[in-house]
Design brief:
Helix content is 51%, strand content 13%. The protein is an alpha/beta fold and 160 residues long. It is elongated. The two termini are 20 Å apart. 34% of the residues are buried.
Length: 160
């Protein structure tokens, strides 16, 4: 469980783990025990999205924990840009869709757009310079995607 996660009922965690397991359908890589590990985080993300009126948009190549546990919409770049344009949410979080977040900010200038990056912030600099909007990156150079808990911690630090 993430440090920011509120205590959730064991039954809720078990139901969420089973939901994830049934959706992911990759028992060799994502068995029920793995789903139990991420279930408290996905429940917390769902709670925070409601609390903060946020939406998570994920590209179809994302990992199953993001696609089935966090994302409200999954698709290709065009489909996600349409969802970003049409959303009523106050906060838009893109999951590793580096060059679509600026589109969301352009079509929704009054909304907060969060962009987890696994480089050193080049996209944030591009958005600031090209569109004169304040963009703050989540940066790391390790060759691995961000985990849900890393993205959650950054979102919480920005919207709290």
């Amino acid at each position: 469980m993430t440090p920011t996660a509120q205590l959730v009922h064991e039954g809720d965690v078990e139901r969420e783990a089973k939901r994830l397991f049934d959706k992911i359908r990759q028992p060799d890589r994502w068995d029920l025990d793995m789903c139990r590990l991420i279930a408290p985080m996905t429940l917390e993300i769902q709670r925070l999205k409601k609390e903060r009126n946020a939406v998570v948009l994920a590209h179809s190549y994302q990992t199953p924990d993001i696609v089935y546990g966090a994302a409200d919409f999954v698709g290709d770049s065009y489909g996600l840009s349409v969802k970003a344009r049409d959303t009523k949410a106050d906060v838009i979080v893109f999951s590793s869709v580096r060059f679509m977040a600026e589109t969301a900010k352009i079509v929704n200038p009054g909304k907060k757009v969060l962009i987890p990056e696994n480089n050193m912030g080049q996209l944030s600099l591009l958005i600031r310079g090209g569109f004169l909007v304040d963009a703050e990156g989540l940066n790391r150079v390790t060759g691995r995607p961000f985990t849900i808990s890393e993205v959650e911690a950054k979102i919480l630090s920005m919207v709290s």
